[in-house]
Amino acid sequence: MKKIVITGVAGFLGSHLAKDLLNEGHHVVGIDNFISGRKENLLTLSNQHFSFLELDASDQDLIHHPQLVNINEIYHLASPASPKFYQQFPFETINVNTTGTRNMLEIAKRCGAKMVYTSTSEAYGDPLRHPQSESYRGNVNTWGPRACYDEAKRMGEVLCYLYFTKHNVQIKVARIFNTYSAGLANDDGRVISNFVTQALKGQDITVYGDGKQTRSFCYVTDTIRGLKLLMEKESANGEIMNLGNPNEIPILTVAQLVKSLSNSNSSITFHPLPKDDPKVRRPVIEKAKGLLGWEPRVTLEEGLKVTIQQYKEKLNL
């Protein structure tokens, strides 16, 4: 049995990952301060091998917490990830990805633990190179509403690089591209949760810009499998890895697909594009294929069908 720490355990990815690891028989120590995580996400984690610390990962005292000893693995997932939340909590977002990342790296260094840090495709900003490989350095605006997230994640990557090169910490970085499932809260503010909720409620489906901007959507089970493989593979130490679906799709097409699959009578309406919203997004995943043997298995239509059905149940429709 491994002792595994997950920061952001009450979040979308954190709770999915914790459930998987508990089912495999590991002891999980979850950390969350509920800024964007949800207490109801912890209800499925009732297990004798699960312990929870309601703490901020950026709290300096966390390093010396008596439960954070003899750790084998750390998944540092804590951070608001939706623009709705990181723009509401910009300083907290910066802190958890900088001070919080350093705290987790210090614990990993002390315990000799392996660590995965979840960065983001937003590290590429509004990319001038398409599709995006890990070698692309990005086109990020430091003076805008998304910078608190984009630049904080990039700084977190710098800290990981330093602890890998100077302290030999077994660190791996995942740049995650648009993960979805019904585990996203209805009011999360991300595109899939917005579209499905609006379609099922008969509300206008709100598309920003002309809808021609593209994204690559990865179902949660594929992302979780990628994170676990990243942790497992020694060949991934000191590497940055794209985890996402290379099937690129325009946002308007996603809206139309959600409307069709949910048999919705909603209208699709168009609204001004938010500042610094990326126009294109598609990962190159050859590195993940080669080092991890990983690629997505769930198609967008398959994932949306499951998501729509589960949202119907959540909304009592």
Q: What is shown here, in short?
A:
This protein is α/β, with parallel strands linked by helices.
Give the structural class.
Answer: alpha/beta
Question: Would you state the CATH class of the largest domain?
Answer: Alpha Beta
Order of strands, main sheet, comes to 3-2-1-4-5-6-11
As for the CATH topology of the largest domain, it is: Rossmann fold
Number of helices: 9
What is the number of domains? 2
- In terms of DSSP E residues, the strand content is 15-25%
Query: Secondary-structure element sequence?
Result: EHEEEHHEHEEHEEEHEEHEHH
Low-confidence stretches are none
**Percent in helix:** 25-40%
Distance between the termini: 41 Å
Mean pLDDT figure: 95
Largest sheet: 7 strands, parallel
Query: What would CATH call the architecture of the largest domain?
Result: 3-Layer(aba) Sandwich
In CATH, what is the homologous superfamily of the largest domain? NAD(P)-binding Rossmann-like Domain
